[in-house]
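Hi R.,

As promised on Friday, here is the backbone we talked about, encoded as structure tokens. Could you run it through your design pipeline when you get a chance and send me back a sequence?
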């Protein structure tokens, strides 16, 4: 594991103890990574950095390791580096060997027994390296999957299955499907309703100290999307989760909240605005500079929304 990282489970245990949650931000480039780390360090709260396999293919695993090593050096807050949506044990092993402190094995679209077998295999690999593992059960719905939210309840996580999955695999945390979805189109003209009763039932079965994960948690803030559209984007009918629903999900037992779309929208709004306001500038740093500033505001807002230290949640 890279020096300066902690296993995600350490952070998740802190969240369950303090009845709060941690933000897990996806990053796509060095600038986004810098903003996430600097902002978390500024507010002195733990953070999970995550990358998908497509980001690994884009940046390169060696570069990710080098950038994260530099980013976490001398930073005095708990930080984990997590593989998001690992599709098989091969990519999980690559990340564990490279120095990640957490991996997700996502076999949620496979049969239950295959999901269990594959998750067990990854847990075994990861445990030897002190690396945490997140699993997933259920299907995230939404326009991207061509599934209507209203007809999707049977795709949500089944509480009994969740209990059996955790018992059989000993996985450290579980991503559950309760009505959110990835990307900017989460509801049909209205924010999707989260099935909080199902969440409560799952938490009751798995216990208050078992960490649960909410994927697809972006709000898709209209003011930022408007900036993108004003400066040339063509993204209409987008809709995310309400901030208050994300807060409610944490109250009902979510401990890790995944955010990607919201920081992408902010970053792109900054780039588009800067290109428009500085049409004669070829200075990449100038355009990325505004993108970083706009992204920082969203990262701060998210951390304040998601990680609540009102329960006395000191980092010790
Ligand atoms: O959960 C997945 C991310 O939001 C998007 O994935 O990095 O493959 O585009 P990507
Ligand atoms: P959003 O698309 O809502 O940001 O979700 C990101 C996510 O779940 C990454 O795993
Ligand atoms: Zn996800």
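Update: got your reply. Pasting your designed sequence below so it's all in one thread:
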């Amino acid at each position: 594991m890279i020096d300066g990282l902690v296993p995600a489970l350490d952070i998740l245990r802190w969240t369950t103890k303090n009845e709060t949650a941690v933000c897990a931000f996806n990053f796509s480039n060095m600038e986004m990574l810098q903003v996430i780390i600097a902002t978390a360090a500024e507010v002195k709260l733990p953070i999970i950095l995550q990358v998908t396999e497509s980001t690994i293919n884009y940046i390169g695993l060696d570069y990710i390791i080098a950038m994260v090593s530099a980013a976490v050096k001398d930073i005095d807050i708990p930080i984990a580096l997590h593989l998001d949506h690992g599709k098989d044990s091969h990519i999980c092993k690559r990340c564990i060997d490279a120095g990640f402190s957490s991996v997700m094995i996502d076999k949620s679209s496979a049969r239950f027994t295959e999901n269990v077998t594959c998750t067990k295999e990854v847990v075994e690999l990861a445990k030897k390296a002190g690396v945490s593992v997140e699993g997933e059960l259920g299907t995230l719905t939404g326009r991207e999957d061509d599934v209507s939210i209203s007809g999707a309840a049977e795709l949500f996580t089944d509480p009994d299955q969740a209990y059996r999955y955790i018992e059989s695999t000993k996985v450290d945390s579980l991503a559950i499907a309760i009505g959110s979805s990835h990307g900017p189109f989460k509801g049909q003209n209205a924010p999707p309703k989260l099935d909080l009763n199902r969440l409560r039932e799952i938490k009751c079965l798995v216990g208050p100290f078992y960490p649960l994960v909410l994927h697809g948690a972006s709000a898709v803030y209209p003011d930022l999307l408007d900036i993108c559209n004003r400066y040339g984007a063509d993204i209409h009918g987008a809709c995310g989760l309400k901030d208050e629903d994300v807060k409610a999900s944490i109250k009902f037992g979510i401990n890790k909240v995944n955010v990607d779309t919201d920081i992408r929208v902010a970053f792109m709004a900054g780039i588009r605005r800067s290109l428009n306001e500085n049409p004669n500038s070829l200075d990449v740093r100038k355009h990325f500079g505004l993108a970083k500033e706009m992204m920082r505001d969203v990262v701060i807002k998210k951390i304040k929304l998601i990680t609540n230290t009102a329960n006395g949640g000191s980092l010790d």
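One thing I noticed while checking it: The pocket of zinc ion (ligand 3) is lined by residues 84-85, 182, 215, 258 (CB under 6 Å).

Thanks again,
M.
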